[in-house]
């Protein structure tokens, strides 16, 4: 499906998948700009439509003392400056209605976190901004049930909506991607596969979420083979020292090789009947 109403989106006619990528959280100006600049260079080279993402605030943390952000408006201003400096669209997630009014002044796409995918008031408030809305599929929700979340957006007068699958909870400490869900959700909206959060290992005894980043390319390749519209990747130049979700982020040094392989696969898939 075609992305609509997202300003500054380049290479939209390349017949490729699109990419939502960036760090888990905005940790500062220098790190955010470094990551955005490097991803942009790679996506321009490969002609991949690119949306830069970064959470301005991390509201869903395992422990009380976990990193939550550098300050709401400070982080949002960094996202706005990145959009202006590099002429690219930006995305951030919102956790409560008050976040919606604030974040919509700074970014192009509002994201509904997976645990909040059924929160009607939040979805309606986001829809009413007129921004493109990316709804993360709840780990506890079936692909079929996402049509109701999408309808909350469209019934509120906003047709600019997409779904991102980030796996389904399997037991207490594992996530599983059911690739049968991709065409099911594509019948409802543009569908993205989150290939980093799908590999999280939540609920660790330490209170810090783990992950399996070595499996990122495995999940990503499967998504492209199954003709997913977009790929979602969290990436950092120093994942081990990232302040949020470092255990399942892709090292930025490995991004170009991964995307190059995915583009080759997509070009092959495009030739199939």
Descriptive notes:
This protein has 273 residues and is of the alpha/beta class. The protein has one domain (18-270): Aldolase class I (TIM Barrel, Alpha-Beta Barrel). It is built from 8 helices and 13 strands. The chain has helices at 29-46, 72-86, 97-103, 120-127, 146-154, 181-186, 216-225, 255-270, and strands spanning 18-22, 50-53, 90-93, 109-112, 132-136, 161-165, 168-169, 175-176, 190-194, 200-201, 210-211, 230-236, 250-251. The strands form 3 sheets. Strands 1-2-3-4-5-6-9-12 form an 8-stranded parallel β-barrel, surrounded by 5 helices. Helix 1 (29-46) runs parallel beside helix 2 (72-86), helix 1 runs parallel beside helix 8 and helix 4 packs across helix 5. It is globular, with a radius of gyration of 17 Å. The model has no long low-confidence stretch (mean pLDDT 92).
Per CATH, the superfamily is: Aldolase class I
CATH C-level: Alpha Beta
- Spatially, the strands of the biggest sheet line up as 1-2-3-4-5-6-9-12
Shape: globular
CATH architecture: Alpha-Beta Barrel
- Total number of helical segments? 8
Counting helices, strands and paired strands, the structural category is alpha/beta
Order of helices and strands: EHEHEHEHEHEEEHEEEHEEH
Oligomer: single chain
Q: How many domains is the backbone divided into? A: 1
**Annotation, overall tally of beta strands:** 13
Radius of gyration: 17 Å
Distance from N terminus to C terminus (CA atoms, Å) equals 17 Å
